[in-house]
Amino acid sequence: MRVLIAVTHLLGAGHLTRAAALARAFAQGGHKVTLVSGGGPLQPAGLDGISFVQLPPVRITGTDFKTLLDEEGAPVHNFRLAERRIQLLETLRTFRPDIVITELFPFGRRVLADEFTMLLDEAKRQNPRPLVLCSIRDILASPSKAERIEETHARILESYDAILVHGDPRIVPLEVTWPVIERIRPLIRYTGYVDENPEPLEQRKREGILVSGGSSAASLPLYRAAIAAAHEIADKPWRILIGRGVAEADLLALRDNAPGHVTIERARPDFRALLAQAELSISQAGYNTAVDLLRSGVKAVLVPFEAGHETEQRLRAERLKALGLAEIVPEAELSPQMLTEAVRQSLSREPSPPPHVELDGARQSVAIAESLALSRPALHRPIDWTPMDRALDRARDRGCTIRFWWRDDDAVADTPRLDHLLTLSRRAKVGVALAVIPHALEPSLVSRLQSEDAVFALVHGWSHANHAPIGEKKAEFGAHRPVEAMARQAEQALRIAREKLGRKLLPAFVPPWNRISPELVPHLLGLGFTALSTFNDRKTAFPAEGLLQVNTHIDPIDWHGTGSLVDPASLVENLAAAIECRASGDAEEEPIGLLTHHLVHDDITWSFCEELMMRLNAKNIPILSPRDVFSARNRITALA
User: Fold this and answer.
1) Is the distance from CB of 23 to CB of 53 less than 8 angstroms?
2) Which class for 120: exposed (0-12), middle (13-18), buried (19 or more C-beta within 10 A)?
3) In which region does residue 509 sit, left (phi positive, over 0), alpha (psi from -120 to 50) or beta (all else)?
4) 634 vs 228, 425, 523, 582, 628, CA distance in Å?
5) Alpha helix (H) ranges present in 349-412?
6) Which residue, among 185, 178, 83, 89, has the nearest Cα to 137 in the 3D structure?
7) CA-based Rg of the chain, rounded to a whole angstrom?
C-alpha cells in the first residue's frame, strides 16, 4: 500500500523522530511511504527507499505554540502558509495514498488546523478514500477549554478511522491526560511505544554518567547544572551530549566550564549504545528518552521539561519513578545541589527489574493499519444488491407491501456529522427519527430540528449511562436497577425532551443499547410514552396494552470489529431475509428499520446508507416518515 505520514515538529525533533520510525516500519513491511515534514529542515537518517517531502519550515520559540516563525525567527507570512498547503495538496494528489496518517493532529497542532483540515477534506474526495489514522504519543496536553476538546472529538468522528496511541496503557492510559468519550473509544488502538532503533543492545559493564537533552536549546539549564554537579562528583567519568539546536557559542562556553573528567560533545548516532554502557542517565523525560531508558534499563535522573505549564514530561517522569526506574528533579527546583543529591541517591540504590512494557509500537502500528485497511471494503467496490432485489420482487408478486423507516441514535448537538445525516435525508427525500439523549441535549440541536420538516426526535433514555454490572451487556434501563428509579428517570427524560423540543418530539422511548427491563415496559404508557423502539423483530406489536412497538432491524456498523461497515454481502442478505419474512407472513406487518449512528460513521458506512436509500427510492419502496411510523392511527389500533 501507499502510506503518507504528515508531521510538523515545532520545538524539538521528537515528533519527527517518531514519525520517521513509523515510516521505516511501513517501508520494511513492503509498503511505499512518503513522509511529509513541516517543521525545521531536518531529515532523519535511515530513510532509504522513503520519499521525504520538506514543506516550507515553521518553528516556535519557548512554549508559544500560537506564533509560527520562519528559519530566521520572523513571524510566518500567510504566503508561506499558503505555499505549504499547496505543496501538501500536490503531494497527496500525486501520491494517492491508501493510508493517511496525521501525527498529533487533531489532538494538537491547532495553529496548523487549516492545512491539516485541507489534507483531510481532499483525502475524503479521493476514490477510493484512503484509510485515515491519527498518530499520538502516550501523553497529551489536554486543552483547558471544553470547546476545544469537543472540536477535537468532532474532527476525529468526522474524518478518522482509528487513533494509534503509541504507548502502553499499563504505564499511562490515554484517559489520564485526555477526556476519552464513549464515541471515540472504539477508535483507540494502543500500539506500544515506538522505538526508533529497535536493534538489540550489547550489554557491557556499566560505567560513568551520561547527560543528554533534547535537540533544542531548552536543555541548556540542565547542561549547566550537570557541569556544576560533576565538580562535586569527580570519581566517575561524565559525558554530556549537546543537542544540535544549541548554538556553537553556548557549546564552547559549556566546555570552558567543565572539569577534566567531563567530555562534552554533540549528540551522537550511537547514543543508545552509550546509554547501555552508562551507570546513570541524566535527561529530560521526553517520549523518545523514555523509550531509550525502558529499552536500556539504565538508572535515571529525570528533569522533566515544564516551562509554559507543560505537564507531559512531568507525568511521564512520575510514572517511571513509580516503576522504580528514575529519580525526579523538578525543573523549577533544578540547581547543582539538587541534581548532585539526586545523582548520589540514584547511584546508591539497587537497580529495579525492568517492567514488561510494549516497545514494538512501530511494527504494531503497521499491523493495525494493515488489518484496518484489509477489513474495510473499498468505496469503489460495487455492492451486489441482487438478493434484496429478488426478495422485493417476490414480495411484490405476492401482493405484499414492504415498508422501511429510518432511526438514528445518540443525537445531542448540531455537528458536522449530523449535517451529513440530514443532507442525505434531504437528498433521498426520506425522514429520520433522531433518538436524542435528553440529559446531553444542546440548544444547537433544538434549533436545527426546527428547520428540518422531515426529522423528528425520539427519547433515547436519559443520559446513555451504563448501569449493568461488569461483564454483562451494557444497559441504562436493564434489569439492574429498581423499576421505580428507572420509571422516574424515564419520566424526567420525556419531560425535559418535551420542554426543549416541543412539536418536534414524538413520545417514543428508545432504550440505549436497545435493552430494556420487561418490568419497566408496562409503565411507559402511564409515564406519557406512546411507543417503544428497540432492535430485532418484535414479538408483538403491543408489548403492553396501548403501547406500540416499532423496532429497527438493520445496523450497518461492525461494532465488535473494525468499527466501520459490516461486510456488505451479509448486510444485503439480512435485508433480503427481513423482506422474505414479511412477504411469507412469518412476521407482523412491521416496517423494516434501518438503525444508524451518525456520530461514528465513516465514508464507507455513509456510502452504503446512501446507496440503500436511493435504491429503495428507485424501486418505489415506501420509506415511512417518523410521524407515520408512530402515528395516532397505529395507537388507536393498539387500544382497540
Assistant:
1) no
2) buried
3) beta
4) 85, 24, 19, 18, 9
5) 361-375, 386-397
6) 178
7) 30
Neighbour-count burial of 124, counting CB atoms closer than 10 A to its CB (0-12 exposed, 13-18 middle, 19+ buried): middle
List Cβ neighbours of 464 (8 Å cut-off, separation of 6 or more): 182, 410, 437, 439, 440, 476, 512
Q: Which three cell numbers stand for residue 388?
A: 434484496
402, three cell numbers: 414492504
For residues 60 and 31, the answer to whether their CB atoms sit within 8 Å is no
Cell of 325: 526506574
Burial of 541 (0-12, 13-18, 19+ CB in 10 A): middle
Lookup result for grid cell 545541589: 337
Per-residue pLDDT tens for 614-628? 999 989 999 999 999
What rounded mean pLDDT belongs to the chain? Answer: 90
Strand arrangement, sheet containing 238-242: 262-266, 238-242, 209-212, 280-283, 299-302, 326-328
365-390 confidence digits (pLDDT tens): 999 999 888 776 554 467 899 999 99
Higher pLDDT, 106 or 125: 106
Q: Would you give the end-to-end CA distance of the chain in angstroms?
A: 62
Question: Rounded to whole angstroms, how far apart are CA atoms 593 and 578?
Answer: 10
> Which grid coordinates are listed for 345?
541517591
Chain-centroid distance, C-alpha 525: 40
Give alpha helix (H) positions in 258-329: 271-277, 287-296, 312-322
Strands 209-212 and 188-190: unpaired
The enclosing H or E element of 256 equals helix 248-257
> Within 13 Å and on the Cβ side, how many CA atoms surround 295?
26
Predicted TM-score (pTM) of this structure: 0.60
| Placement of cell 495538496 in the chain | 89
Each residue's pLDDT tens digit, 520-549: 999 999 999 999 999 999 888 889 999 999
